[in-house]
Amino acid sequence: MPSHPHHDRAPLFTPALRPEQALCRAGKGCRAALLVACTAVLSGCTVGFWSYQQIAAPEAQYVQVNCNGRDGPPKLAYYPFHGIFIAVAVSPLDLRLRTPRGVHAHLDGDSVLVSGHTDKGNVDLTLHLKTAAQASDGSSLAEMRFEERHDNGWQAGTPTSDAQIDTMTTGTIQLPPITIDGTAWPAQTLSFTRKVYTEVMKPNAGCPAPP
């Protein structure tokens, strides 16, 4: 497999689109499409609304975060970066490096800087990473996943980083520098905007079985 990404390459995350999601992708009104689907197809369903932060990145795909990528807000931005793939989301912090076989990549630091605008003014946060998991998806790609390392000094009544990020309407996230096969790449700063995700929910529905 080539070590550099191709524009026409099939996405590594391919969650299936439900009919109402296809309408949204086609430029229709998401809320209207979901309400129609709810009325016409499902009995006793409800429509749920969730706010989330969508990170903008070059050539990004947006991956749903629940039920193994088949449900929930499409908040995980997944994009190519100098021969590897990066996936990132905030609230909660989720950073993943996916590398083709034979390519070595590591973070040069453990700090993620999140700055954003809220109704009460600007907020700046420094989050620290810890390794959450390392795995291979059975193909030629390996994944290293990082999440926030929580400080033991947190005190009750103090807003968590997730709670503070949730109040931001716009902002930026700065990732640590990355070294890929001996080449050091500087820290990336990506912008994000608060979005609203709408979904039809059936009563007592859990995660659908994998196809």
Helix share, percent: 10-25%
Question: What would you call the structural class?
Answer: mainly beta
Beta-strand level of the residues, as a percent range?
35-45%
Largest beta sheet, briefly? 10 strands, antiparallel
- Write down the overall geometry: globular
Number of strands: 13
Separation of termini? 26 Å
Indicate the radius of gyration in whole angstroms: 19 Å
- Neighbour order of strands in the largest sheet: 1-13-10-7-8-9-5-4-3-2
Q: Give the low-pLDDT segments.
A: 1-38
State the helix count: 3
- The quaternary structure here is single chain
Order of helices and strands: HHEEEEEEEEEHEEEE
| Rounded mean pLDDT score | 80
Give an overview of the whole structure.
This protein is mostly beta strands and 211 residues long. It is 12% helix and 43% strand. It contains three helices and 13 strands, in the order H-H-E-E-E-E-E-E-E-E-E-H-E-E-E-E. The strands form two sheets. A ten-stranded antiparallel sheet has the order 1-13-10-7-8-9-5-4-3-2. Strand 8 and strand 9 form a beta hairpin. Helix 1 runs antiparallel to helix 2 (30-41).
